[in-house]
Specification:
It contains three helices and no strands. By secondary structure, the chain is mainly α. The chain has one domain. The longest helix is centred in the middle third of the chain and has 23 residues. It is flat.
């Protein structure tokens, strides 16, 4: 396996072992950081957008639980 593939497997395993709330928090944080990075690229402050997206994604992933195995 390549190093990239091993890194992917480690991160994927770590995420799949998170609790429902933990997984939702990671998704919310990732979406907020993505929006902040995009805002930095286009030269706009998007703090409000990042916060609202983080809240929305965290709530959606917590309540709809896409990791549900049953």
């Amino acid at each position: 396996m390549t190093d990239v593939r091993l890194a992917y497997e480690r991160v994927n395993g770590w995420l799949r072992n998170r609790s429902r709330a933990g997984f939702a928090a990671v998704v919310g944080l990732g979406s907020a950081l993505g929006i902040l990075a995009f805002g930095a690229l286009v030269g706009e402050r998007m703090l409000f957008d990042a916060i609202t997206m983080a809240i929305a994604m965290t709530a959606a992933y917590y309540f709809f639980d896409p990791q549900d195995k049953g």
